[in-house]
Amino acid sequence: MALREPPFRSDPKELFDFPDKNGVEGLSHKEENGMPDYWVKLTEREEEEIQHHHYLVTAKTEVEARKLALRFVERFFDDDESPEQIDNGFSFYNRAIEVQISDIKETTRDRFKDFLLKLHTIG
Questions:
Q1: Which strands form 84-86's sheet, in the order they lie side by side?
Q2: Tens digits of per-residue pLDDT, 25-84?
Q3: pTM above 0.85?
């Protein structure tokens, strides 16, 4: 299976807050700035093909994290100027592709980084 770049062209940093830890080790982002990190899992469906995408968002509450994630999903494909809102997401290109939030849970940056490392490590 070939790896491909995410289908969006927008810079995720424009929609989500991705500040560095500024060298502070051992502290969660919540301890640093008072706001927790949330792991957002998106499911992209195109005909029979299903792909999962994972993102990290910093927000005051899970409700706010969901709102930020929905704004991100709405711009998932920049060249579709009129995405249609569906349950927990948006459809694109006349419902040819659907992108939905499938899960949001509070996490730490270290847990999220560990997951991504395992996901993208061969062997």
A1: 49-58, 37-46, 97-107, 89-92, 84-86
A2: 344 556 667 899 999 999 999 999 999 999 999 999 999 999 999 999 999 998 999 999
A3: no
**pLDDT tens column, 77-90:** 989 999 999 999 99
Q: Which of 110, 117, 122, 105 is nearest to 31 (CA)?
A: 110
Residue linked to tokens 């061969």:
122
Strands 97-107 and 49-58: unpaired
Q: From CA 23, how far away is CA 32, in angstroms rounded?
A: 11
CA distance 106 to 55: 12
